[in-house]
Design a protein that fits this description.
Elements (H helix, E strand, L loop, with lengths): L1 H21 L13 E6 L4 E4 L5 E7 L2 H8 L5 E3 L8 E7 L4 E7 L8 E6 L7 E2 L11 E8 L13 E11 L8 E10 L12 E6 L5 E7 L3 E3 L4 H4 L9 E8 L5 E2 L5 E3 L14 E4 L1 H4 L1 H4 L1 E3 L4 H10 L5 E3 L20 E3 L21 H19 L3
Parallel strand pairs: 2-9
Antiparallel strand pairs: 1-3, 1-8, 3-6, 4-7, 5-6, 7-9, 10-11, 10-18, 10-19, 11-14, 12-13, 12-15, 15-16, 15-17, 20-21
Length: 385
């Protein structure tokens, strides 16, 4: 009987361990994903690109180790169909999350020709590395594109920044990447239009106090936070201080349209205690109503911006996460993870733990099966035969 029980328990333990290994085991709460992501504009295989286009390559590290890798990367290069290097002026920009290189060819590109972007990212994919396999620099192809027959010298048509939409968010513990309590603030604008491919349009965000300072370059959406911590991490502008801001539309050729001047943002007061949402990490609109869920700042709310976008004949664009250029995908859980359909100026999704690679804690379901098997095994072994 004992032998039979032992055989049964051994089989049960093996199955439990297999189940434990198969079931997904979340990372510790709010731990970032590994590696780095790369996005390129023009996107791979794009056609009809103006012969005076810029090339933009963005590298976003997701860990401190990956940040060192990104800092050590050489500037990307552009080569023609014969492999000849294209002479270009190289500009490097950094925002709160990533390093961006802009290549501006010194002469117009050959019309109706294919060009290739090369770099040291070390991967043909748009992401590299993990906790177990860090990014390793090596020559790689970031993408290629084909030019049109002419240049683009006309700036986009753009009405500029309309206002701000502030949504109260709160979380009481680490299960939802807290504690935090503050406003997530989305800058609102209607989509720009252009005589070239509309999906190539991007937006630059500037803070105007004491000079014109770029906060986000070539963005599709712009979201900040009135507090630091997770809310700032889940946005592409970081902490949004009170002050004047301007949004400009820019096309692939670098033609920028900056109408409508700037608008002033002043952080709204926190909602009254009786209107404050539950601190469960969820969105607050349904819990607290307009007082906490949709607080308007700057005189324009999300509905108004949506109507403007509709009136302007908005075309949907590829949204590659935060301030990513179009065309990239990344590893599961990365900040820049996928392309979705979203109109310019629309707020980013309400931050949830999954958006930053954070989770409720270590993997209890799978681990629990294995521990249960172990407990049963010990208990039955101690029973008299």
């Amino acid at each position: 009987m004992v032998a039979q029980v032992n055989v049964f328990l051994a089989g049960f333990s093996a199955v439990a361990l297999l189940v434990s290994a198969w079931l997904p085991t979340p990372a510790w709460a709010c731990s970032p994903v590994g590696g780095a992501t790369r996005t390129v504009q023009p996107a791979h295989a794009d056609k009809g690109i103006p012969i005076n286009a810029e090339v933009r390559v963005r590298y976003q590290p997701n860990t401190s180790a990956a940040a060192g890798f990104v800092d050590g990367l050489p500037a990307p290069t552009l080569v023609d169909a014969q492999g000849k290097l294209v002479a270009a002026q190289v500009e490097q920009r950094k925002d709160m999350k990533a390093t961006l290189y802009i290549l501006r060819p010194k002469a117009p590109l050959s019309p109706n020709s294919t060009f290739t972007v090369q770099d040291g990212f070390g991967s043909k994919e748009s992401w590299c590395g993990s906790f177990d396999a860090p990014c390793v620099s090596a020559a790689s192809v970031a993408g290629s594109f084909t030019t049109a027959a002419q240049a683009d010298t006309s700036p986009p048509f753009f009405v500029g920044l309309l206002g701000f939409d502030a949504s109260w968010q709160s979380c009481g513990d680490s299960n939802c990447c807290g504690p935090f309590a503050g406003y997530q603030v989305a800058l609102q604008w209607g989509p720009a239009t252009d005589d070239s491919d509309a999906k190539q349009l991007r937006y630059n965000v500037y803070r105007m106090d004491g000079g014109k300072k770029a906060l986000a370059s070539f963005a599709i959406a712009a979201v900040g936070s009135t507090v630091g911590g997770y809310l700032a991490f889940a946005s592409n502008l970081g902490v949004l201080a009170d002050g004047d801001y301007q949004v400009c539309a820019i096309d692939l050729a670098g033609n920028e349209s900056c109408p409508n001047g700037s608008k002033t943002f002043v952080a709204p007061a926190p909602p009254a205690p009786d209107a404050a949402p539950d601190t469960d990490g969820g969105a607050t609109g349904a819990d607290a109503g307009d007082a906490a869920g949709e607080v308007k700042a700057g005189g324009v709310d999300a509905d108004t911006a949506s109507e403007v976008a509709t009136d302007a004949g908005a075309e949907t664009v590829d949204f590659a996460g935060e301030v990513a250029a179009d065309g990239g995908t990344a590893s599961d859980g990365a900040v820049e993870v996928q392309d979705t359909t979203q109109s310019p100026g629309k707020p980013l999704p309400t931050p949830k733990p999954k958006d930053s690679g954070c989770s409720a804690g270590p993997g209890a379901p799978a681990g629990g099966v294995a521990w249960l098997a172990l407990v049963v095994l010990v208990w039955l072994r101690r029973r008299p035969a």
